[in-house]
């Protein structure tokens, strides 16, 4: 089954996503299955750069606005996740407000949006350190349903497919 998601960054955009459908050639209708809370748009609507300068509490306020008008599952862009100690609090907060999953990227240093591709230096996080962050987040979870997804940046960083696979296996093991 194909899942369809759409980015939301306000209560209004969530309301639009909640009620948007399209008609298929066979006459059936299809809507969005989940919502995406993007750090890029969360920053942009506040006139800030996408470098993790919009804090979790500001982004969670938007998530709560969205959940006022929809019950669709939400996936949250957690950027790098911050330090493991901070990530545990982020996981608990997101789970408490009803987010279904958080995605964190395995980069380090000042965040560089992946849309820049190889035009900007993309520094990968240490595998063991990032694995500890995932493990800390998993340990902080209250329910088994909440998901932590590792977004591998090895290909964007030019490190190659073998490195991406090596990282993926380590993160699965975490």
From TrEMBL:
It comes from Oxyrrhis marina (Dinoflagellate). Belongs to the isocitrate lyase/PEP mutase superfamily. PEP mutase family. Pfam families: PEP_mutase. It comes from the Eukaryota. CDD domains: ICL_PEPM (cd00377). This is Phosphopyruvate hydratase. InterPro entries: ICL/PEPM, Pyrv/PenolPyrv_kinase-like_dom, Pyrv_kinase-like_dom_sf. GO terms for molecular function: catalytic activity. Coiled coil: none annotated.
């Amino acid at each position: 089954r194909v899942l369809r998601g759409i980015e939301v960054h306000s209560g209004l955009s969530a309301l639009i996503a909640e009620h948007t459908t399209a008609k298929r050639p066979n006459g059936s209708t299809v809507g969005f299955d989940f919502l995406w809370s993007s750090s890029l748009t969360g920053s942009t609507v506040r006139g800030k750069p996408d470098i993790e300068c919009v804090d979790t509490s500001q982004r969670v306020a938007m998530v709560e606005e969205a959940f006022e008008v929809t019950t669709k599952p939400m996936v949250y862009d957690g950027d790098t996740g911050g330090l493991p100690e901070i990530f545990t609090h982020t996981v608990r907060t997101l789970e408490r407000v009803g987010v279904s999953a958080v995605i964190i990227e395995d980069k380090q240093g000042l965040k560089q949006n992946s849309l820049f591709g190889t035009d900007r230096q993309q520094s990968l996080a240490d595998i063991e350190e990032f694995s500890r962050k995932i493990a800390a987040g998993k340990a902080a979870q209250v329910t088994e349903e909440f998901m932590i997804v590792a977004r591998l940046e090895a290909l964007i960083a030019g490190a190659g497919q073998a490195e991406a696979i090596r990282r993926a296996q380590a993160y699965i093991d975490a």
